Amino acid sequence: MCCSSSIARDKATMGEPEAFDISAVKGMKFFDPHVHMTSRTTDDYQAMADAGVVALIEPAFWLGQPRTGLDSFRDYYSSLIGWERFRSSQFGIKHYCTIGLNSREANNESLAEQVMEILPLFIYKEGVVGIGEIGFDDQTAAEEKYYRLQLELAKEAGLPVQVHTPHRDKKKGTQRSMDIALEHGLDPYQVIIDHNNEETVKEVLDRGFFAAFTIYPFTKMGNERMVEIVKQYGAERIMVNSAADWGISDPLAVPKTAALMKMRGLSDQDIELVTYRNAITAFAQSGQIDEADFNAQADLTEKFEGNTILRGGQQPRPDKSSIIIS
C-alpha cells in the first residue's frame, strides 16, 4: 500500500517518464568518471557498452556496512585493480580506479591508521588514475585529518584527487575542501570536486577546480537541472557521472544526460566535453589514460587468475527474449 501510494505521488509530481531513445546518442562515446561497478551486474556492463560507454573510473568507497579489519580494505583495493578491471574488459569497457580512504571510514581512526599504511602499495599500480574518493561526510576532525594526509599522498605521487563533497551542509563542506587542497599546495586543475549542485558550481569553477556532477535519482542531481547548469556556465571543466552503486541508481546516467542535452539544443561539442573529454583531461594527468586503449575488443578467451565471467562455457550475450534459460 505504501509503495503504490508513493509511485502514484511521484507520477503526479513528475509526470509520465519520457522514454530513453538510445538512437539519439548513437555513435557517441562516453566516459563515466565515477561509478561503483563492484556493486553492479553484468547486465549493467552490457547496457553501458551498448549505450556507448567506452571507459569508466571506479573510486574506492564505502560498501554499505562497517568493515571489521584491514584485510577487507586490502582485498577491496586488490579487486579494483584486478578482478573488476578484468570483468569490465570482457564488455570492451576500459576500467580505471581511484584509491583512497573514504570520509565515512576515516572516522574509525584505529582502522584508518592501518589503511593509510597500505595505500602506497596500491596507488602506483596500473590503472590507478587518482586518489579518491576522499573528503568530508560529517565534517569531523578525523575526516579532516585523513583528507589532509591523503592530499599529501596525492602530491607525492603526482596524482589527481577526486573529492567527495558532503550531502549535508554542502556549500560549507565544498568550500572547506577547496581551502584545504590549496593550503596543501595542490594545483586546482589537478583536483576534481565531485557531487556539485547549483549552490557550489560557480565558486568551484571560479577557483580553477574541475566540477563533477552526479546524476543520481532523488538524492543528488537530476539531468534536467544539469542541462540548465551547462547552459548557464558552459562546458569548460564540467563533467557528469552516475556514481551508480548499491543504491537505487542508474549506470546509464551519462548517456541519458547526453541524450537529454541533445534534445534541449546543446551543441555536440559541449556534450562531448561534459560526458567524455573533460574527464579524460582531468584524470589523464595521472599519465595512465590513453584513448587508444578504449577501442580494444573484448577477448573472451582471457581469464583472471584462472577465472572467467563465462562460467561453464556461457555465451556473453544471453537471449533475454526467451523464457527458456538453458
From TrEMBL:
<dbReference type="InterPro" id="IPR001130">
    <property type="entry name" value="TatD-like"/>
</dbReference>
<keyword id="KW-0378">Hydrolase</keyword>
<protein>
    <submittedName>
        <fullName>TatD family hydrolase</fullName>
    </submittedName>
</protein>
<dbReference type="InterPro" id="IPR032466">
    <property type="entry name" value="Metal_Hydrolase"/>
</dbReference>
<dbReference type="InterPro" id="IPR012022">
    <property type="entry name" value="UCP005295"/>
</dbReference>
<dbReference type="GO" id="GO:0016788">
    <property type="term" value="F:hydrolase activity, acting on ester bonds"/>
</dbReference>
<dbReference type="Pfam" id="PF01026">
    <property type="entry name" value="TatD_DNase"/>
</dbReference>
